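Cross-posting from the chemistry board since nobody answered there.

I work mostly on the small-molecule side, so proteins are not my area. We synthesized zinc ion and want a rough idea of how it might sit in this target. Sequence and SMILES are below. Is it possible to get a predicted 3D structure of the two together?
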Amino acid sequence: MVERFQKILDNGLKIWFDPKPLGDCKIQLNFSSGSIDETIPSTAHLIEHIQGCTSTIYGNGSLAYSNSNAYTSLEALGYYFGCIVPEDFEDGLELIARVFDRPDLKIMERERAAVRHELLGKVNPFNALNESIFTQLFPNHAKIMKSISQELEGLPRITEEAIIEYWNKFYDPRNAVLYLGGELPENVEELVGNFASTPQRSPLESFEHSWPMEPDLSKRLEIIEKLNDKPVASINIHYQIPLFPHDTDIRDWLVYGALIGYLNKSHGPLYSKLRDSLELVYRLNIETHGSGRAGRLLFSCETGNSSSWPEIESAWQRTINDIANIGIPNAEYEMQKKNYRINLIHNSQSFDITGMESEFKNGITKQEITRSILGITSEDIRKKADEIRKKNYIISVVLPKNA
Ligand SMILES: [Zn+2]
Protein backbone atom coordinates (compact mmCIF):
# COMPACT_ATOMS: atom_id res chain seq x y z
CA MET A 1 0.00 0.00 0.00
CA VAL A 2 1.23 3.51 -0.84
CA GLU A 3 1.88 5.70 2.19
CA ARG A 4 0.18 9.08 2.44
CA PHE A 5 1.98 11.88 0.60
CA GLN A 6 1.73 15.52 -0.37
CA LYS A 7 2.01 17.05 -3.82
CA ILE A 8 2.13 20.80 -4.50
CA LEU A 9 0.93 22.01 -7.90
CA ASP A 10 2.62 24.91 -9.70
CA ASN A 11 -0.24 27.23 -8.72
CA GLY A 12 0.49 26.46 -5.05
CA LEU A 13 -2.44 24.11 -4.35
CA LYS A 14 -1.39 21.45 -1.86
CA ILE A 15 -2.88 18.02 -2.39
CA TRP A 16 -2.80 15.43 0.37
CA PHE A 17 -3.19 11.86 -0.85
CA ASP A 18 -4.29 9.40 1.81
CA PRO A 19 -4.83 6.12 -0.08
CA LYS A 20 -6.37 3.37 2.08
CA PRO A 21 -8.44 0.29 1.33
CA LEU A 22 -11.48 1.65 3.16
CA GLY A 23 -14.05 0.85 0.48
CA ASP A 24 -15.25 4.46 0.21
CA CYS A 25 -13.62 7.87 -0.39
CA LYS A 26 -13.53 11.37 0.97
CA ILE A 27 -12.74 14.62 -0.84
CA GLN A 28 -12.21 17.76 1.19
CA LEU A 29 -11.12 21.26 0.20
CA ASN A 30 -9.89 23.48 3.03
CA PHE A 31 -8.87 27.12 3.07
CA SER A 32 -6.79 28.80 5.78
CA SER A 33 -9.10 31.81 5.97
CA GLY A 34 -12.35 32.40 7.76
CA SER A 35 -14.49 35.04 9.37
CA ILE A 36 -11.40 36.75 10.80
CA ASP A 37 -10.51 37.82 7.26
CA GLU A 38 -13.78 39.51 6.32
CA THR A 39 -14.46 43.24 6.46
CA ILE A 40 -18.26 42.94 6.76
CA PRO A 41 -19.42 40.32 9.31
CA SER A 42 -20.96 37.14 7.75
CA THR A 43 -19.26 37.58 4.36
CA ALA A 44 -17.22 34.35 4.64
CA HIS A 45 -20.31 32.43 5.76
CA LEU A 46 -22.46 33.78 2.93
CA ILE A 47 -19.82 32.80 0.35
CA GLU A 48 -19.65 29.34 1.92
CA HIS A 49 -23.37 28.98 1.23
CA ILE A 50 -23.05 30.20 -2.36
CA GLN A 51 -20.09 27.93 -3.17
CA GLY A 52 -21.74 25.08 -1.25
CA CYS A 53 -24.71 25.34 -3.63
CA THR A 54 -22.54 25.69 -6.73
CA SER A 55 -20.59 22.55 -5.84
CA THR A 56 -23.89 20.75 -4.94
CA ILE A 57 -22.62 20.07 -1.42
CA TYR A 58 -25.81 21.91 -0.53
CA GLY A 59 -28.54 20.70 -2.83
CA ASN A 60 -29.75 17.67 -4.65
CA GLY A 61 -26.80 16.74 -6.88
CA SER A 62 -25.60 13.30 -7.94
CA LEU A 63 -23.70 12.92 -4.64
CA ALA A 64 -26.67 13.90 -2.48
CA TYR A 65 -26.50 10.46 -0.86
CA SER A 66 -23.08 11.22 0.61
CA ASN A 67 -22.10 12.67 3.94
CA SER A 68 -21.25 16.17 2.74
CA ASN A 69 -21.06 19.56 4.29
CA ALA A 70 -19.28 22.90 4.43
CA TYR A 71 -18.27 25.09 7.35
CA THR A 72 -16.84 28.49 8.22
CA SER A 73 -14.91 29.14 11.40
CA LEU A 74 -12.82 32.01 12.66
CA GLU A 75 -9.72 30.93 10.77
CA ALA A 76 -10.77 28.18 8.38
CA LEU A 77 -13.25 27.24 5.66
CA GLY A 78 -13.94 23.76 4.42
CA TYR A 79 -16.03 21.84 1.90
CA TYR A 80 -16.27 18.07 1.73
CA PHE A 81 -17.89 15.06 0.17
CA GLY A 82 -17.58 12.13 2.57
CA CYS A 83 -18.77 8.53 2.27
CA ILE A 84 -18.80 8.43 -1.54
CA VAL A 85 -18.47 5.24 -3.56
CA PRO A 86 -15.23 4.94 -5.60
CA GLU A 87 -17.00 5.21 -8.98
CA ASP A 88 -18.18 8.71 -7.95
CA PHE A 89 -14.70 9.93 -7.03
CA GLU A 90 -14.13 11.67 -10.36
CA ASP A 91 -17.52 13.41 -10.18
CA GLY A 92 -16.77 14.53 -6.66
CA LEU A 93 -13.45 15.99 -7.75
CA GLU A 94 -15.12 17.96 -10.54
CA LEU A 95 -17.85 19.23 -8.23
CA ILE A 96 -15.49 20.35 -5.50
CA ALA A 97 -13.37 22.20 -8.08
CA ARG A 98 -16.37 24.54 -8.55
CA VAL A 99 -15.66 25.97 -5.11
CA PHE A 100 -12.88 27.95 -6.83
CA ASP A 101 -15.35 29.40 -9.39
CA ARG A 102 -16.42 33.02 -9.24
CA PRO A 103 -19.41 33.13 -6.82
CA ASP A 104 -22.80 32.93 -8.53
CA LEU A 105 -24.33 36.23 -7.43
CA LYS A 106 -27.76 35.23 -8.76
CA ILE A 107 -28.29 33.04 -5.69
CA MET A 108 -26.90 35.60 -3.26
CA GLU A 109 -30.24 36.87 -1.90
CA ARG A 110 -31.66 33.38 -1.46
CA GLU A 111 -28.56 32.33 0.50
CA ARG A 112 -28.50 35.56 2.49
CA ALA A 113 -31.97 34.60 3.75
CA ALA A 114 -30.74 31.09 4.57
CA VAL A 115 -27.80 32.43 6.59
CA ARG A 116 -30.09 34.86 8.39
CA HIS A 117 -32.41 32.01 9.35
CA GLU A 118 -29.44 30.01 10.62
CA LEU A 119 -28.12 32.91 12.69
CA LEU A 120 -31.54 33.67 14.20
CA GLY A 121 -31.60 30.08 15.45
CA LYS A 122 -28.50 30.91 17.48
CA VAL A 123 -29.97 33.92 19.26
CA ASN A 124 -30.59 32.56 22.73
CA PRO A 125 -29.40 33.22 26.29
CA PHE A 126 -27.02 30.21 26.23
CA ASN A 127 -25.11 31.64 23.29
CA ALA A 128 -25.05 35.05 24.94
CA LEU A 129 -23.59 33.42 28.06
CA ASN A 130 -20.93 31.62 26.01
CA GLU A 131 -19.99 34.87 24.29
CA SER A 132 -19.70 36.60 27.63
CA ILE A 133 -17.44 33.83 29.03
CA PHE A 134 -15.28 33.99 25.92
CA THR A 135 -14.94 37.77 26.27
CA GLN A 136 -13.80 37.45 29.88
CA LEU A 137 -11.34 34.65 29.09
CA PHE A 138 -9.97 36.14 25.88
CA PRO A 139 -10.72 39.89 25.75
CA ASN A 140 -8.35 40.54 22.83
CA HIS A 141 -9.72 37.71 20.68
CA ALA A 142 -13.24 38.86 21.53
CA LYS A 143 -12.46 42.20 19.90
CA ILE A 144 -11.69 40.57 16.55
CA MET A 145 -14.34 37.85 16.70
CA LYS A 146 -17.91 38.57 15.73
CA SER A 147 -20.82 37.92 18.02
CA ILE A 148 -24.07 36.52 16.64
CA SER A 149 -25.61 39.99 16.81
CA GLN A 150 -22.70 41.46 14.84
CA GLU A 151 -23.10 38.67 12.27
CA LEU A 152 -26.81 39.48 11.97
CA GLU A 153 -26.09 43.19 11.72
CA GLY A 154 -23.44 42.67 9.01
CA LEU A 155 -25.42 40.27 6.85
CA PRO A 156 -27.75 42.80 5.12
CA ARG A 157 -24.76 45.09 4.44
CA ILE A 158 -22.83 42.54 2.37
CA THR A 159 -22.53 43.80 -1.20
CA GLU A 160 -21.67 41.93 -4.38
CA GLU A 161 -18.34 43.74 -4.35
CA ALA A 162 -17.60 42.49 -0.81
CA ILE A 163 -18.31 38.91 -1.93
CA ILE A 164 -16.03 39.18 -4.95
CA GLU A 165 -13.33 40.93 -2.96
CA TYR A 166 -13.22 38.20 -0.31
CA TRP A 167 -13.35 35.42 -2.88
CA ASN A 168 -10.63 37.06 -4.93
CA LYS A 169 -8.34 37.37 -1.95
CA PHE A 170 -8.82 34.05 -0.21
CA TYR A 171 -10.17 31.45 -2.66
CA ASP A 172 -6.71 31.15 -4.07
CA PRO A 173 -4.96 27.80 -4.64
CA ARG A 174 -2.00 28.92 -2.49
CA ASN A 175 -4.41 29.25 0.43
CA ALA A 176 -5.99 25.81 -0.02
CA VAL A 177 -5.42 22.14 0.70
CA LEU A 178 -7.22 19.38 -1.19
CA TYR A 179 -7.48 16.14 0.83
CA LEU A 180 -8.18 12.92 -1.06
CA GLY A 181 -8.60 9.82 1.05
CA GLY A 182 -9.71 6.22 0.92
CA GLU A 183 -10.19 4.10 -2.18
CA LEU A 184 -8.43 6.33 -4.72
CA PRO A 185 -8.40 5.47 -8.46
CA GLU A 186 -5.06 4.47 -9.95
CA ASN A 187 -4.93 7.57 -12.14
CA VAL A 188 -5.68 9.93 -9.25
CA GLU A 189 -2.52 11.99 -9.82
CA GLU A 190 -3.56 12.50 -13.42
CA LEU A 191 -7.10 13.49 -12.40
CA VAL A 192 -5.93 16.22 -10.04
CA GLY A 193 -4.04 17.70 -13.01
CA ASN A 194 -7.30 19.58 -13.72
CA PHE A 195 -6.64 21.72 -10.68
CA ALA A 196 -3.44 23.00 -12.29
CA SER A 197 -5.57 25.41 -14.34
CA THR A 198 -7.03 27.00 -11.21
CA PRO A 199 -5.51 30.48 -11.36
CA GLN A 200 -3.80 32.40 -8.59
CA ARG A 201 -5.74 35.60 -8.11
CA SER A 202 -4.93 36.93 -4.73
CA PRO A 203 -2.95 40.14 -4.38
CA LEU A 204 -1.80 38.78 -1.01
CA GLU A 205 1.71 37.46 -0.46
CA SER A 206 0.86 35.60 2.72
CA PHE A 207 -2.32 34.15 4.19
CA GLU A 208 -0.93 33.97 7.74
CA HIS A 209 -2.98 35.50 10.55
CA SER A 210 -1.59 37.56 13.34
CA TRP A 211 -3.29 36.80 16.62
CA PRO A 212 -3.32 38.91 19.76
CA MET A 213 -1.84 37.70 23.05
CA GLU A 214 -4.09 37.39 26.08
CA PRO A 215 -3.50 38.49 29.68
CA ASP A 216 -3.71 35.74 32.32
CA LEU A 217 -6.93 35.72 34.32
CA SER A 218 -6.16 37.65 37.48
CA LYS A 219 -8.63 35.86 39.73
CA ARG A 220 -11.29 33.15 39.93
CA LEU A 221 -14.53 34.37 38.35
CA GLU A 222 -18.00 33.03 38.98
CA ILE A 223 -20.93 33.41 36.62
CA ILE A 224 -24.31 32.08 37.70
CA GLU A 225 -27.45 32.24 35.58
CA LYS A 226 -30.89 30.66 35.76
CA LEU A 227 -31.61 29.43 32.25
CA ASN A 228 -32.30 25.69 32.31
CA ASP A 229 -35.80 24.42 31.56
CA LYS A 230 -34.87 21.04 33.01
CA PRO A 231 -34.30 20.63 36.76
CA VAL A 232 -30.54 20.24 36.30
CA ALA A 233 -27.54 22.47 36.82
CA SER A 234 -24.75 22.64 34.23
CA ILE A 235 -21.32 23.39 35.62
CA ASN A 236 -18.40 24.49 33.45
CA ILE A 237 -14.89 25.33 34.55
CA HIS A 238 -12.79 27.19 31.96
CA TYR A 239 -9.00 27.63 31.99
CA GLN A 240 -6.75 29.49 29.58
CA ILE A 241 -4.08 27.18 28.16
CA PRO A 242 -1.34 27.57 25.53
CA LEU A 243 -2.36 26.18 22.17
CA PHE A 244 -0.39 23.85 19.92
CA PRO A 245 1.37 24.67 17.59
CA HIS A 246 1.48 28.45 18.31
CA ASP A 247 2.27 28.62 22.00
CA THR A 248 3.46 25.18 22.99
CA ASP A 249 5.23 22.16 21.52
CA ILE A 250 3.86 18.76 20.64
CA ARG A 251 5.23 17.06 23.75
CA ASP A 252 3.54 19.52 26.11
CA TRP A 253 0.32 19.23 24.12
CA LEU A 254 0.39 15.44 24.42
CA VAL A 255 0.89 15.73 28.20
CA TYR A 256 -2.35 17.72 28.32
CA GLY A 257 -3.94 14.90 26.34
CA ALA A 258 -2.65 12.28 28.76
CA LEU A 259 -3.95 14.17 31.80
CA ILE A 260 -7.32 14.72 30.15
CA GLY A 261 -7.53 11.02 29.24
CA TYR A 262 -6.96 10.13 32.89
CA LEU A 263 -9.55 12.64 34.15
CA ASN A 264 -12.15 11.42 31.65
CA LYS A 265 -11.76 7.74 32.60
CA SER A 266 -15.11 6.22 33.45
CA HIS A 267 -13.63 4.73 36.63
CA GLY A 268 -11.03 7.44 37.12
CA PRO A 269 -10.58 9.87 39.99
CA LEU A 270 -13.34 12.31 39.02
CA TYR A 271 -16.08 9.77 38.47
CA SER A 272 -15.12 7.96 41.65
CA LYS A 273 -15.59 11.16 43.65
CA LEU A 274 -18.53 12.75 41.84
CA ARG A 275 -20.52 9.67 40.88
CA ASP A 276 -19.49 6.80 43.14
CA SER A 277 -19.10 8.57 46.47
CA LEU A 278 -21.08 11.82 46.19
CA GLU A 279 -23.72 10.44 43.78
CA LEU A 280 -24.02 13.87 42.16
CA VAL A 281 -22.77 13.53 38.60
CA TYR A 282 -23.30 10.75 36.05
CA ARG A 283 -21.77 12.40 33.04
CA LEU A 284 -18.75 14.64 32.86
CA ASN A 285 -16.24 15.69 30.23
CA ILE A 286 -12.86 17.36 30.00
CA GLU A 287 -11.67 18.70 26.66
CA THR A 288 -9.60 21.38 24.98
CA HIS A 289 -10.83 24.04 22.54
CA GLY A 290 -9.01 26.61 20.55
CA SER A 291 -9.24 29.25 17.91
CA GLY A 292 -6.51 31.65 17.02
CA ARG A 293 -4.30 31.64 20.07
CA ALA A 294 -7.18 31.38 22.50
CA GLY A 295 -6.75 27.92 24.02
CA ARG A 296 -9.14 26.59 26.60
CA LEU A 297 -9.31 23.60 28.93
CA LEU A 298 -12.91 22.91 29.84
CA PHE A 299 -14.40 20.69 32.54
CA SER A 300 -18.14 20.28 32.17
CA CYS A 301 -20.81 18.25 33.91
CA GLU A 302 -24.46 18.22 34.86
CA THR A 303 -26.12 17.45 38.15
CA GLY A 304 -29.69 16.86 39.19
CA ASN A 305 -28.90 18.36 42.56
CA SER A 306 -28.46 21.95 41.50
CA SER A 307 -27.47 23.39 44.87
CA SER A 308 -24.52 20.99 45.00
CA TRP A 309 -22.38 22.87 42.50
CA PRO A 310 -19.89 24.17 45.12
CA GLU A 311 -19.21 20.55 46.12
CA ILE A 312 -18.58 19.68 42.50
CA GLU A 313 -16.15 22.55 42.13
CA SER A 314 -14.29 21.46 45.23
CA ALA A 315 -14.16 17.80 44.06
CA TRP A 316 -12.62 19.02 40.80
CA GLN A 317 -10.04 21.09 42.71
CA ARG A 318 -9.19 18.19 45.03
CA THR A 319 -8.69 15.90 42.05
CA ILE A 320 -6.27 18.31 40.38
CA ASN A 321 -4.51 18.84 43.72
CA ASP A 322 -4.16 15.11 44.34
CA ILE A 323 -2.60 14.58 40.94
CA ALA A 324 -0.31 17.59 41.45
CA ASN A 325 0.79 16.18 44.81
CA ILE A 326 1.19 12.48 44.14
CA GLY A 327 0.98 12.07 40.35
CA ILE A 328 -0.88 9.21 38.73
CA PRO A 329 -0.12 5.49 39.15
CA ASN A 330 2.33 4.20 36.56
CA ALA A 331 -0.04 1.41 35.60
CA GLU A 332 -2.61 4.06 34.68
CA TYR A 333 -0.34 5.71 32.22
CA GLU A 334 0.76 2.37 30.77
CA MET A 335 -2.92 1.73 30.01
CA GLN A 336 -3.18 5.09 28.30
CA LYS A 337 -0.26 4.21 26.05
CA LYS A 338 -2.15 1.12 24.94
CA ASN A 339 -5.14 3.31 24.31
CA TYR A 340 -2.94 5.55 22.20
CA ARG A 341 -1.73 2.57 20.17
CA ILE A 342 -5.33 1.57 19.55
CA ASN A 343 -6.06 5.09 18.33
CA LEU A 344 -3.13 4.86 15.94
CA ILE A 345 -4.53 1.62 14.53
CA HIS A 346 -7.96 3.21 14.11
CA ASN A 347 -6.51 6.31 12.45
CA SER A 348 -4.61 4.13 9.99
CA GLN A 349 -8.00 2.69 9.03
CA SER A 350 -9.84 5.97 8.61
CA PHE A 351 -9.64 9.37 6.87
CA ASP A 352 -6.86 10.96 8.86
CA ILE A 353 -6.89 14.66 7.92
CA THR A 354 -5.67 15.63 11.38
CA GLY A 355 -2.65 13.34 11.03
CA MET A 356 -1.80 14.77 7.62
CA GLU A 357 -2.18 18.29 8.92
CA SER A 358 0.22 17.56 11.72
CA GLU A 359 2.71 16.02 9.29
CA PHE A 360 2.50 18.36 6.30
CA LYS A 361 1.48 21.62 7.97
CA ASN A 362 3.17 21.42 11.34
CA GLY A 363 6.01 19.13 10.28
CA ILE A 364 5.42 16.48 12.93
CA THR A 365 5.50 12.88 11.77
CA LYS A 366 3.60 9.91 13.18
CA GLN A 367 6.90 8.52 14.44
CA GLU A 368 7.65 11.71 16.38
CA ILE A 369 4.22 11.67 18.00
CA THR A 370 4.64 8.02 18.95
CA ARG A 371 8.07 8.71 20.42
CA SER A 372 6.71 11.63 22.43
CA ILE A 373 3.76 9.63 23.74
CA LEU A 374 5.97 6.74 24.81
CA GLY A 375 8.36 9.19 26.46
CA ILE A 376 5.71 10.83 28.67
CA THR A 377 6.07 9.87 32.34
CA SER A 378 3.67 10.11 35.21
CA GLU A 379 5.91 12.90 36.55
CA ASP A 380 5.10 14.97 33.43
CA ILE A 381 1.42 14.51 34.15
CA ARG A 382 1.93 15.48 37.80
CA LYS A 383 3.67 18.70 36.73
CA LYS A 384 0.86 19.50 34.31
CA ALA A 385 -1.72 19.16 37.10
CA ASP A 386 0.49 21.41 39.22
CA GLU A 387 0.47 24.05 36.44
CA ILE A 388 -3.31 23.86 36.21
CA ARG A 389 -3.92 24.16 39.95
CA LYS A 390 -1.98 27.43 39.97
CA LYS A 391 -4.18 28.96 37.28
CA ASN A 392 -7.26 31.08 37.83
CA TYR A 393 -10.42 29.99 36.10
CA ILE A 394 -13.98 30.94 35.30
CA ILE A 395 -16.70 28.77 36.74
CA SER A 396 -20.06 29.15 35.04
CA VAL A 397 -23.15 27.56 36.55
CA VAL A 398 -26.46 27.40 34.76
CA LEU A 399 -29.25 26.67 37.22
CA PRO A 400 -32.86 25.69 36.57
CA LYS A 401 -35.10 28.68 35.84
CA ASN A 402 -37.07 28.15 39.02
CA ALA A 403 -34.06 27.51 41.28
ZN1 LIG B 1 -24.50 28.24 7.25
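Reply from a structural biologist on the board:
Welcome over. Reading the output above for you: The first strand starts at residue 5 and ends at 8. The first helix runs from residue 43 to 54. Happy to explain the C-alpha coordinate format if needed.
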